[in-house]
Structure formats: C-alpha cells, structure tokens
Amino acid sequence: MIALTPQLLLRLAALGMLGVVVQTAAVSQLPIAGANADLSPLLVMAVGLLCGSLAGGVFGFGVGLFADVVALQTLGVSSLVLLAVGYGAGRLREARDPEGTLVPLAVGAAATLAFGAGFALLQFLLGVDAPVSWALIRQLLATLVVNTLLALPLYALVRRWLQPAMPDDRRRRRRRAYTTGGLSPLSRGPEVRR
Amino acid sequence: MYDKTVRRRRAVLGLLVACSLILLTAYFGESGSGALHSVQRGTSEVLSPVQEGASRALKPVRDLFGWFGDTIAAKGQVEELRRERDRLRTEVAQSEARNADYDRLSKLFQLNGALGLDKLGPKTGRVIFQSPTVWYATIRVDKGSDDGVKVGHPVINEEALVGRVTEVFGGSAQVTLITDASTKVPARAGRRQEFGIVEPASAGNPTDLVMNFTQPNARIRVGDRVVTRGTEPEDHAASRYPVGLPIGEVTRIVHEGTDTQEIHLRPYADVRSLDFVQILTRPRGPDS
After folding, report:
1. Which residues of B touch A83 (CB under 8 A)?
2. What is the per-residue pLDDT across B9-52, written as a single tens digit (0 to 9) for each?
3. Contact B251, B266 (CB under 8 A)
4. Is B28 within 8 Å of chain A by CB?
5. Of B24, B44, B46, B241, which one is least surrounded by beta carbons within 10 A?
6. Pick from A53, A76, A87: which is nearest to B21 by CB?
7. CA distance B51 to chain A (A)
C-alpha cells in the first residue's frame, strides 16, 4: 500500500476536481456513438490501480461526493458506488499485482460497468420511477464501450500526473536497475568471464 | 505491522461507507430547504463560475469533437433518411388500414340505417380473436356483459348476419359463426318468402351454406336473396335472429322439386376477414 503523502493527496484532490469539472463542462456534452463517456469511474480505477485500495477508496468517495454536489444529485449515491470501485481496483493491485499492458482496459470496463449498474440499482432503491427499458441498457453498453476505449490513455495520463508524488515502486526500480547496467547479468558477463 | 495496515484500511473503508449512507439517508429524508440541500446549492453556486470558465475554455475541444461528430453524422444522415422513409411507408400502410376500417364501419352504419337496426341496440365490437381451427368457426369480440351482451344475441357485420353470441365474459364475447356446424338459422327466400333452415353445407367451407326443409314446390330461384325469418319453425315463437337480416344469395339447387331438395347459398358475409361486427343487444326490439 502506497503511503498517502501530502503531495500525493494534493495531486489526487486536483485530479479529482479537474476530472469532475472537465466531465461536467465538456465530456458530458460530447455524445460519442449516442452515449457520453464517464470519466469518474476511469479516474477512480486508475488511482486505485496506481495507489492501492485506501487511496482508491478515499479518492472514489471524494470524486463521487464532488460530482453529486456539482450535479445537484442525491448526495452519497456516487460516492458510495465510486468508493467501492476505487477500493476494488486498489485491492486488485494489492492482491494480484497485475502487470499486463491491457489491465487498465479490462479494469476500466469493469469499473464502468460496476458504476453504471451500482448507480442504477441505488436509484431504483431510492424509488426513481423509471422503467428499465432497452434504451437504458443500450445507453449503459454504449458508455461501457466508449469508456473502455478511453481507459488506457486516461490511465497513462493519471500515472504521469501522479508519478512525481509517488514513491518508487519495486517494478520500476527493478527495470531501471537492468537498464542502467548495474544488476543485469548481460552487463556483468565480461566480468564473470574474466 | 501488516495487521495494523489492514485494520486501518478497513476502518477507513467502513467510515467512508457509513458517511455515504448517512449522507444518502439524510439528503433523501430532508426537504428541499434542508441543510444538505442548502450546502449543495451553495457549493454548486460557488463552483458555477469555475464550471462556466471551464466550459468556455474547453469549447474549442468540444467544437473539434463536434466537427468530427458532424462529419460522421452527415455520412450517417443517408441511413437516417432511409429509416425515415421506411417509417413513413409503415405509417402510410397503417393509415390505409385505418381507412379500410373506416369504410367497413361506415358500411356497417349504413346497413343499420337501411334495416332499421338502430332500435335493436347494436354494439360495435372489434374482433380480437379468431379460432385457428376450421372445426370451430368462432371469433372473440371485445364487447361483453359489461356492454349488455348476452348469450344468444345475433351478430352482424357490414354485409349480413355473421353468427350469434355463445359465451359472454366481462369485456368480451365468443361468437359462433353461421359457418359453424352447430348453427341453424330460420330463414326465408324467394318472392313468396319460402321458409327453411340455413346451416353450413360442410365443415370448414365458409362460402357454402345450405337451406334445408323447404317445401318441394317452393318457388326459389338461383340469385334469390335469403334473409332471416324472425320466428322459429316449430312454434312460430320469436327467433333469436330478428326478421329480415340478410344471409346470402342462392347459388344452386340440388334435388329440385323433391322432399330432399337442398338450396345452396353463398353467404354475404366473408367470415374469414372480420374486423368489426355489431352485436344486437335488443334483438326483439326496444321493448325486449
């Protein structure tokens, strides 16, 4: 688990606020294939994958609360669902430590699906009188596809933004050690032969 | 150390979940002027200039995406127009069907006027079901006991007698057609109004009825009209079918001039394509 330093918290807060503002001011007004991308679950997923469950959960809660406030929605709905999304993504990192390049893509899709389903479920539990129509399901699926396509670039952007505030992780340290030649068996070959 | 980390993580998670649930419950339970709503409105008001600024700043990005979208949409417009054409075609077909319905209803009311059926309490109903088997020539109509329909009431369409009500439900009624094997209609035909009983010539043949029990010396010719008699043959009591309802036209006469002569007739009503029918709820007149 990555320690939540003040610098990291600051960057996370800025990321969350910027993400919600961009979402409401621009992305929500850009229909792609009949649906809008939803950056919130992707941002939370990226933070969870990069920083762990605690940071992911806290970030999800914060982003959800901010989104609810800005959009004048029922307070607590988005924060509860995004908290679960962030925590889940973080636990995946801590328990499995997936290394594949396409992991953010798959986790992004899962996060979008979980967010869409969880949000809809809570709305129905709160008594929103809307019939489950094919249009609603089609909308959810279209958002899922668009978000899946956006998951990788957004993950890369979040990683770039958070990297300066994050402690070196073991994987990166290992790779750097190889490339600088210090520990690589290939670079040590001549010495061994001598 | 590990346990401490896990405990801390779980505690934070539990705290956040509790916060969410409290917020949700409090927000949902309070009125529109409650504290949380006020905080939300205030925060949103404070943030609105930020949002407005961001919206303006991001307009070029939106326009760029919009340009891409417009280009793709323009290409997709052909497909959209094709869909609209198809939709309009469907609407035209539906409109034609409505016109046909109107024509039939209009004829139905004309028949009412011509035969003076208005005083027999006609209730117009739409056919909602037709028996799939030829052995039971029945239809279901969307008028039932709620509309005053009773078992035995005669049923007509815009052309002629169609059948009689045999089952009644609250909002619908089962009608046994004149082509059903169980149907027997007292009828008369020819200039001298010869009596007979009309029944189906054979099961499953909706275009051929037969008039039996006519006198051997009855003067009935091909082309004569056959109408309901209005009384039962045995006791001359009033029949369930009012007098003078058209049934069909004589097409041929078998064993003419004998005791077993059969007068075949083609029914006026095409019972294979019934859309609207009228149930005569006062078959014996307004005083019945």
Report:
1. 13, 16-17, 20
2. 888 889 999 999 998 888 888 887 888 888 887 887 777 777 77
3. yes
4. yes
5. B46
6. A76
7. 6
Buried b / exposed e over B51-71, threshold 16 CB at 10 Å, is eeebbeebeeebeebeeeeee
Total tally of structural domains belonging to chain A:
1
In chain A, which residues have their Cβ closer than 8 Å to the Cβ of B12?
A: 54, 57-58
Residue B136's nearest CA partner among B186, B174, B187 is: B174
Q: ipTM value, please give it.
A: 0.74
- With an 8 Å Cβ cutoff, is B12 touching chain A? yes
DSSP SS3 for A167: coil
Phi and psi for B171 in degrees, rounded to 5?
-115, 10
Residue A187 lies in a domain: no
Picking from A22, A25, A58, the nearest residue to B16 by CB comes out as A58
Residue A14, domain CATH: 1.10.1760.20
Residue A64, domain member (yes or no): yes
Confirm whether pTM is higher than 0.80: no
Domain of A50?
Answer: 6-167
